[in-house]
Amino acid sequence: MSQIVLAPTPEDAAAEKSRRAPLSWVWRQLKSNPGAATGGIVFLVFLLVSLPARLVAPYDPHATFATGYRPPSPAHWLGLDDGGHDMVSLLIYGTRTSIFVGFGASIIAIVIGVGLGLAAGYWGRATDAGISSITDFFLVIPEVPLMMVIAAVWGQGLGKMILIIGGLLWTWTVRVIRSQVMSVKERVYVRRAKALGATDWRIVTRHVLPQVAPLIIVNFVLTVAVAVFDESALSFLGLGDPRAISLGRILENADQGGAATLGAWWALVPAGAVIAILILSLTLMGQAVEDALNPRLKVSHLSRKHFLLLPNVRTGAGRPDPTPGARQGEILGDVA
Amino acid sequence: MKRTDWLIRRLLRALITTFVIITFNFFLFRIMPGDATANLSRIPHATPELKAEIARQFGLDKSKWEQYLAYLGQLAHGNLGLSFTSQQPVVSVLWDAMVHSFPMVALGTVLSVVFGIASGLWAAWRRGGWQEKTSTASAMFFYSLPTQFLGLMLILVFVTWLGWFPAGGTGNEFNFLENPSGATKMADTLRSMFLPALTLALILYGQYTLIVRSGLLETLGEDYVLTAKAKGLSDRRIMMKHAFRNGMLPVVTLIALSFGFIAAGTILVEAVFSYPGIGLLTANAIKSRDYPVLQGAFLMITVSVIVFNLLADLYYFKLDPRITT
Question: Which CATH number fits domain A33-301: 3.30.420.10, 1.10.760.10, 1.10.3720.10, 3.90.640.90?
Answer without folding.
Answer: 1.10.3720.10
